[in-house]
């Protein structure tokens, strides 16, 4: 097809860069780019809000190891996509955002969707450039694509004025040959041999060594090397929330169930692709031992020595290479199983696992709500029965507070990059976009896929789900048969004093569309001191109907039998399925979470 317009040139450039899918929302004039891209065989996934498509594109980059591409309109489209740009920066995901903008001749005149996006985004991206002429398009897009991917991944931005998108190429314009647009995978650096040696000496001399595996290790696709390091050295390891699965959770050296004891007692910690930020308590006491020697391995020099990291020990390099260097340098050394640390970890793990098991096995008494633990136990055992867990045929998506935190330890991971959550920014509203991205990464091209198709199972807090709930229609439209549990406790963190009455009312409802009895509780409570709180949400919301409204399946679940059946049928369903699980409101529980070092007396109770 001849290239005649700016839109065609942009689409062609993207195709030649190897882009196979674009996440976005169209409007004038970017619709022309999307249509040309589709004509060239690129898939365009059209969303309902730019927040969701920018989240999807960012995590698609993380899962596939190649930049995710997002296309939006100017002005408000860019402002909404800013959410995904912030999310990509915070998580170090490679993301290329392309947006339309007002025609260059109308800037400052109050043009359609006018916004100086470059000034806005320059501080929040690795670079932001305007394609100010047709000649500049291929290079601008190529450099933006390369830059978001190379070095430490993050977002880049290209602004595409309407007159460029709609511009006609001059006679004789030379469209670049596809080979000139080829961008090969980022170059990798190995670590300084002197520092590798120092690290191995420290690890050998440690009495309580620990390996922390972060999502940088998952992104680096270093699973084989890390598994070998762990197995050869017998050093216990601790994955971060999205580092789970790099080494299977079932591995005997996994210290996740003894997380606090592991952090508190480790004296030499090898950190593979995880920042010493809030997720790791900055590497500082009281969660960490004050004398711990922390060896950070990172692709980004600025990260080395941050917070409690030791600047003289950090190794700059790609994890996939550095880990092999360390393994080789340790040769056949093994950490002694008779040391005190492993037995201390085992003791703590046993205690915590017993507690978790008790909570999971406690059957729901008649007249009481499901607990999170019991609900997850039922879902897990049902799923295990349908697909052996270690086959890795499920990708988990999870967001919320209790919903995410409690599910994390209950559902084990056996494969890397198959659990996506709210991430470093604790962004609520990512779930629906992440489902689409996971579907695109694993299932969209079965002919070329190297892995088996995956079922996407999401655990969404009732609050978190609400942020992007309309994207359920996107899932239905693209026939993404995700199984979504909306874990409904009637609020953010927990319900309010009206929840218990509302819960009782819900027990009397029929599963059909019987929502009549549902109004009184919340309105009765208004105006009372113990009524609606800032955290309150309506228990009676029939989230599952959002699936049925667009041709999917919905289940309203209040007890163990209903949950088992909904899980079984939802897993087999070939349309999008929402299971609205009514769980304990959790009134009177503390607001606070394990990641914070907040003293007990500082925590709010509602
Ligand atoms: P987590 O959330 O799991 O704690 P973070 O997102 O905080 O992980 O940290 C991931 C780190 O991994 C970042 O500092 C990033 O620079 C680094 N990283 C990403 N890719 C690589 C790679 N290929 N090699 C080394 N480090 C990497
Ligand atoms: Mg909730």
UniProtKB/TrEMBL annotation:
GO CC annotations? peroxisomal matrix
**What are the record keywords, sorted?**
Lyase, Magnesium, Metal-binding, Peroxisome, Thiamine pyrophosphate
This entry's Gene Ontology molecular function terms read:
2-hydroxyacyl-CoA lyase activity; magnesium ion binding; thiamine pyrophosphate binding
Which reaction(s) are listed as its catalytic activity? an (R)-2-hydroxy-long-chain-fatty acyl-CoA = a long-chain fatty aldehyde + formyl-CoA; a 2-hydroxy-3-methyl fatty acyl-CoA = a 2-methyl-branched fatty aldehyde + formyl-CoA
Q: Which InterPro entries match?
A: DHS-like_NAD/FAD-binding_dom, HACL1-like, THDP-binding, Thiamin_PyroP_enz_cen_dom, Thiamin_PyroP_enz_TPP-bd_dom, TPP_enzyme_TPP-bd
Q: Name one GO biological process term.
A: fatty acid alpha-oxidation
Write one Pfam family the protein is assigned to: TPP_enzyme_N
Q: Where is the Thiamine pyrophosphate enzyme TPP-binding domain?
A: 400-581
Its cofactor is: thiamine diphosphate; Mg(2+)
Does Signal appear among the keywords? no
Report the function annotation for this chain: Catalyzes a carbon-carbon cleavage reaction; cleaves a 2-hydroxy-3-methylacyl-CoA into formyl-CoA and a 2-methyl-branched fatty aldehyde.
What protein is this chain from?
2-hydroxyacyl-CoA lyase
